[in-house]
Design brief:
Blueprint (H helix, E strand, L loop, with lengths): L8 H15 L6 H8 L3 H13 L3 E3 L5 E3 L1 H23 L8 H8 L5 H10 L22 H4 L3 E2 L8 E7 L7 H9 L7 E7 L7 E6 L2 E6 H4 L2 E4 L1
Antiparallel strand pairs: 1-2, 3-8, 4-5, 4-8, 5-6, 6-7
Helix pairs in contact: 1-4, 2-3, 4-5
Subcellular location: Cytoplasm
Pfam families: Fe_dep_repr_C, Fe_dep_repress, FeoA
InterPro entries: DtxR_MntR_Metal-Reg, Fe-transptr_FeoA-like, Fe_dep_repressor, Fe_dep_repressor_sf, FeoA_core_dom, HTH_DTXR, Iron_dep_repressor, Transcriptional_repressor_C
Length: 230
């Protein structure tokens, strides 16, 4: 694999994962990628060696992973196709918000530039996917989208305060059960929520919200996967 060549689906998925973790402020290490993809550590190590050799990533002496500029461009190209596909599946084909991530994961690797342009035109230049995440190339700076919107994790909002949901973490969109639960409870982009109570700091502790006049209980760990603005 050399920089500039067509990328395999597996390479694109690794670049997507590294990009998504990075833009949300997470430290990216091999163990996190192994957990995400459900593969053994040696499998991840071998892929990371290939990505370093091809110029898509760099690793420091602590084995922390960062994308190079070329890696960022490659990741944003596939993310653009992914998020456009999600929007197309919802708006044109009528699939539900929580159903489209896996379908988009399968389709994103096979969309040509010509089809991508047609989808953009059909959707009239959409700025975000159905989960609220920015579509690279259609917003000024997708990498800084959270910072530019002064977004914070819902789990950091104090009791009694309100916030507006900006987006659902791309890192966890493949957690289908969680996405379905958020959809059922109305925890979707643009929704206003109020924090009623936060019982503790552990990820499994309850985090109770008022959503459209209804009380909704999620875990604090799940609340950390929802980005909001004040």
């Amino acid at each position: 694999m050399k920089a500039g060549e067509a990328l395999s689906a597996t390479v694109e998925e690794y670049l997507e994962a590294i990009y998504n973790m990075s833009v949300e402020g997470d430290t990216v290490i091999g163990a996190r990628l192994a957990e995400k993809f459900g593969v053994a550590a040696p499998t991840v190590t071998e892929m990371l060696k290939r990505l370093v050799k091809s110029g898509y990533i760099e690793m420091d002496n602590k084995r922390h992973i960062t994308l190079t500029e070329e890696g960022i461009q490659a990741a944003e190209a596939v993310l653009r196709r992914h998020r456009l596909t999600e929007r197309f599946l919802v708006e044109i084909l009528g699939l539900q918000w929580h159903q489209v991530h896996e379908e988009a994961c399968r389709l994103e690797h096979y969309i040509s530039g010509a089809v991508e342009e047609k989808v953009i035109a059909t959707l009239r230049n959409p700025k975000t996917c159905p989960h609220g995440n920015p579509i690279p190339g259609l917003v000024p700076n997708a990498r800084n989208y959270l910072k530019d919107n002064n977004a914070v994790r819902l789990s950091t909002i104090p009791e009694g305060d309100t916030a507006r949901i900006l987006c659902i973490s791309e890192v966890v969109e493949d957690e289908e059960a969680l996405i379905m639960y958020l959809h059922e409870k109305g925890l979707t982009p643009e929704m206003q929520v109020k924090v009623i109570s936060a019982s503790g700091d552990a990820p499994t502790d309850n985090f109770t919200l008022s959503v459209d006049g209804r009380e909704v209980v999620i875990s604090k760990g799940s609340a950390a996967k929802i980005w909001v603005t004040r």
